[in-house]
């Protein structure tokens, strides 16, 4: 409250010292007396209702003066000097002549010379916005060129990307062209052709006939009423107003009686309501003087005569303050002005011309107000040709130039047969020569050709197919200038205009999508890596692979050590069989070294042990430990053998994109892709793959075929490319395999120029093919083709083959050979030992005979001795009586062996010394 009082005090203090008029006069040059009468009433209303509410000097009031506008601009200027300026007017409100626009210009020039502000209420020529010429002019209406902004917004709303602009060659037409060009550039709208004509021209055939050959069917027309009438007549004669066209015109061009049906035009709301503009102008002047007074700005008296000096600085000050005013609730809506004094925020009515030449409103447009789109009624629009549907806005040619590239299995390109160049009928083939090449006629077929033929039937177009000249897919590259241009198929589409469509395995990526339009993907895929299979050669010792050589040696050594220790433990244990061997209750023979060896091998190999088991407790403890050891060894061998079977499968030499040999390049491991391809762009775009991109950049190949052949030959270890192609190659060649998971997922699409009318139709057709299963049929026919000669990769557990277990069979064969060899040794040994045994048997037989003879002789001698003794006993009596000595005993002579003569056998009954020795040993 205190601040408000302070402002009032300061304002009052300033009012006492400021030079400010107590009354002002507003002049008016209007088109009719009726508007003059309304002007007088509006000034009186302002004095009674508006001025009292403003901060103005006490007693301040507005006077007015009015003259009717003359169609003659010279007479109008004279009337200003004679009837308006002498009244000391501070502001002049100017209307617009219905027949001659130069009258307003004359008012602006005359008042501008004396710096008297002029407020136009109906003049909309763009020339009046030039402050260098019309320094004191402003207006409550926008210029005609302001409709260019509305045009641009409507083009965006209806999704028209290419237009034809017809405009006059005068300053108004050039202003419209310049403003629309600046707006169209920001909204990605192309002006295909700008047709310029001379105002008042009679014949328009020369300018309009070429429109028939243009692709755009959207016509923007800026013309005055007279010229528009002639243009419409010529357009009807050339059939440029049919059902494929769309016409957008300015206000003046809506007035002719022959305006085509379906035309869409703009009409400024309150544009012809001069009374409303008069009211808003008076209000703006009153509020501007209130602002001047509140700011304490001196306002000197205005000129009173055209002969006065033209230096009235207060005039431009008043003009600037009027331009700064904002009327929120004016009779014509919200009133604001830009820096050149033109009206801002004007509201246009968007109208549609009907068959009876009447118009219907289909919406309203206000600049910088996005809600206008919500109020549009496009469903109620009747377009040229009485069509309810929005036209395509572009000429749709049913004959398309299609470019492709050889890329199996999508595109096969073979030389045409010699019989008249016929491509054959066994599969769908079509001619596809290289662009500007007559060397060899080619026949193309494959996945993409089948798709192209089906699309041509579905969408109804004809085509001519050719192979890209430089065999490239398309990448931005610098040529002879610093500007980058597209090469390959994309270059033929956007740079050289050799093609209208790309049908090939063309990957959709951001760089390409910025230059061309893509259809919906017809094939979803990713990137993968093609390598040559690495197979392990199965040697005869494959079954030994689960254990290292040192472990096998330790196992073999352990068998013999355990056998020896078992033998020793059972040998020296008091409870072993050696100690119990003399007892009668011994069940088995004692454990010898051979039996211990048999036991150790039997436990290790899990064979039955029928005999030769340890008897002592210490040996049995060792036997149990050895059995546990054998169980662990056998189980470990079995598990590792299964693992080695899996590893023996043919596998890729790398694990995928994250493999260390890819991330950390090595000299002996080469990998690459195709130059100027989407795969190369992908690696270039990904920061984490930049090292791989730099490594591959100098090694990349021109075509995928070259790279695949290098992989087959072993010169290239890994080829990175689209999964569809590499899966096909791996299925066709048993020596190739894809490595790792897919990465860089994307899709293949049909390439079309930006804003092509075919994009949507082809996308819808492709979606239909996905739904009805046609794309799956193409996959099965061209991509998922397996070579029956290649072994299928089975997910079931691996099985042993002869190559894996050949060593085991060789071991068995070796055992058989060893057994046969040993049996011969045993036979020979047995024969040798049999001879010795036979000799011993003969010696034993001879000894037995000799022993029998000895026994017989002993028995005989014993008998004879007994008989002799008996005789001696009988003779003793006689001998004793005779006194003779006794004979020597026979037993003493039995051990006597008289020597034999040289060369003669010992006498019968005598044995050699060796025989006697053998006899003792055998006994």
Automatic annotation (TrEMBL):
L-glutamate binds at residues 505, 507, 512, 678, 722. One of its GO terms (cellular component) is postsynaptic density. GO terms for biological process: ionotropic glutamate receptor signaling pathway. Residues 434-785 form the Ionotropic glutamate receptor C-terminal domain. GO terms for molecular function: ligand-gated monoatomic ion channel activity; signaling receptor activity. The record marks 654 as: Crucial to convey clamshell closure to channel opening. It is found in: Cell membrane; Postsynaptic cell membrane; Postsynaptic density. Residues 1-15 form the signal peptide. This is Glutamate [NMDA] receptor subunit 1. The lineage of its organism: Eukaryota, Metazoa, Spiralia, Lophotrochozoa, Annelida.
């Amino acid at each position: 409250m205190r601040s408000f009082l302070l402002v009032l005090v300061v304002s009052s203090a300033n009012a006492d010292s400021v030079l400010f008029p107590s009354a002002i006069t507003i002049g008016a040059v209007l088109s009719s007396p009726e508007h003059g009468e309304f002007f007088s009433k509006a000034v009186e209303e302002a004095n009674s209702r508006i001025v009292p509410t403003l901060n103005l000097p006490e007693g301040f009031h507005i006077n007015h003066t009015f003259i009717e506008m003359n169609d003659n601009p010279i007479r109008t200027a004279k009337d200003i000097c004679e009837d308006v300026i002498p009244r000391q007017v501070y502001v002049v409100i100017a209307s617009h002549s219905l027949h001659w626009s130069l009258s307003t210009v004359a008012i602006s020039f005359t008042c501008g010379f004396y710096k008297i502000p002029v407020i136009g209420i109906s003049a909309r020529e763009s020339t009046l916005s030039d402050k260098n010429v019309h320094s004191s002019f402003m207006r409550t209406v926008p210029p005609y060129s302001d409709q260019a902004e509305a045009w641009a917004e409507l083009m965006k709303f209806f999704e028209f990307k290419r237009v034809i602009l017809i405009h006059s060659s005068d300053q108004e037409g050039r202003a419209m062209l310049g403003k629309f060009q600046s707006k169209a550039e920001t909204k990605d709208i192309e002006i295909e052709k700008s047709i310029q004509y001379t105002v008042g021209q009679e014949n328009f055939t020369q300018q309009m006939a070429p429109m028939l050959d243009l692709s755009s069917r959207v016509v923007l027309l800026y013309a005055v009423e007279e010229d528009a009438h002639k243009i419409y007549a010529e357009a009807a004669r050339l059939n440029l107003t049919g059902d494929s066209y769309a016409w957008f015109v300015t206000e003046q061009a809506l007035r002719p009686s022959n305006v085509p049906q379906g035309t869409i035009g703009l009409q400024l709301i309150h544009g012809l309501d001069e009374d409303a503009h008069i009211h808003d102008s008076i209000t703006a002047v009153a509020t501007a003087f209130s602002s001047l007074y509140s700011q304490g700005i001196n306002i000197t008296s205005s000129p009173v005569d055209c002969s006065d000096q033209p230096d009235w600085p207060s005039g431009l000050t008043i003009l600037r303050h009027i331009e700064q005013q904002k009327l929120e609730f004016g009779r014509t809506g919200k009133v604001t002005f830009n820096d050149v004094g033109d009206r801002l925020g004007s509201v246009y009515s968007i109208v549609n011309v009907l068959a009876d030449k009447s118009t219907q409103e289909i919406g309203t447009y206000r600049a910088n107000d996005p809600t206008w789109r919500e109020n549009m009624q496009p469903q109620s629009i009747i377009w040229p040709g009485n069509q309810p549907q929005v036209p395509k806005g572009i000429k749709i040619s049913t004959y398309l130039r299609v470019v492709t590239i050889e890329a199996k299995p999508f595109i096969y390109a073979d030389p045409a047969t010699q019989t008249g160049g016929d491509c054959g009928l066994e599969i769908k083939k079509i001619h596809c020569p290289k662009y500007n090449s007559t060397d060899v006629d080619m026949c193309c077929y494959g996945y993409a050709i089948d798709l192209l033929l089906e699309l041509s039937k579905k969408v109804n177009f004809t085509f001519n197919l050719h192979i890209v000249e430089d065999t490239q897919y398309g990448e931005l590259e610098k040529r002879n200038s610093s500007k980058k241009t597209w090469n390959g198929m994309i270059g033929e589409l956007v740079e050289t205009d050799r093609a209208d469509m790309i049908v090939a395995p063309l990957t959709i990526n951001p760089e390409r999508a910025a230059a061309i339009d893509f259809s919906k993907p017809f094939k979803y895929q990713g990137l993968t890596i093609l390598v040559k299979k690495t197979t392990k050669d199965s040697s005869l010792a494959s079954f030994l692979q689960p254990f290292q050589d040192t472990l096998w040696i330790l196992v073999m050594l352990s068998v013999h050590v355990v056998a020896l220790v078992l033998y020793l433990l059972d040998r020296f244990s008091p409870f072993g069989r050696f100690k119990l061997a003399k007892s009668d209750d011994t069940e088995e023979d004692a454990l010898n070294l051979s039996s211990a060896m048999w036991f150790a091998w039997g436990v290790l190999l899990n064979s039955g042990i029928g005999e030769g088991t340890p008897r002592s407790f210490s040996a049995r403890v060792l036997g149990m430990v050895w059995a546990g050891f054998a169980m662990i060894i056998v189980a470990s061998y079995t598990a590792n053998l299964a693992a080695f079977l899996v590893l023996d499968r043919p596998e890729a030499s790398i694990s995928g994109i994250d493999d260390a040999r890819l991330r950390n390049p090595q000299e002996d491991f080469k990998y690459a892709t195709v130059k100027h391809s989407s795969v190369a762009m992908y690696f270039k775009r990904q920061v984490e793959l930049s090292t791989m991109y730099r490594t591959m950049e100098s090694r990349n190949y021109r075509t995928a075929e070259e790279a695949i052949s290098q992989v087959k030959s072993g010169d290239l270890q890994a080829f990175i490319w689209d999964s569809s192609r590499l899966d096909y190659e791996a299925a066709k060649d048993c020596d190739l395999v894809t490595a790792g998971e897919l990465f860089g997922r994307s899709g293949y699409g049909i390439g079309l120029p930006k804003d092509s009318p075919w994009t949507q139709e082809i996308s819808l057709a492709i979606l239909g093919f996905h739904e009805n299963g046609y794309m799956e049929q193409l996959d099965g026919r061209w991509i998922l083709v397996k070579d029956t000669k290649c072994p299928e990769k089975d997910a079931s557990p691996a099985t042993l083959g002869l190559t894996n277990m050949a060593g085991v069979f060789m071991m068995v064969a070796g055992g058989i050979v060893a057994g046969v060899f040993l049996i011969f040794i045993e036979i020979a040994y047995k024969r040798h030992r049999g001879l010795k045994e036979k000799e011993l048997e003969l010696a034993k037989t001879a000894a037995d005979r000799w022993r029998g003879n000895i026994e017989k002789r002993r028995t005989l001698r014993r008998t004879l001795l007994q008989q002799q003794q008996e005789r001696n006993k009988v003779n003793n009596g006689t001998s004793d009586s005779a006194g003779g000595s006794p004979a020597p005993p026979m037993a003493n002579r039995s051990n006597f062996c008289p020597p034999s003569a040289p060369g003669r056998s010992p006498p019968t009954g005598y044995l050699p010394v060796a025989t006697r020795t053998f006899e003792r040993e055998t006994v």
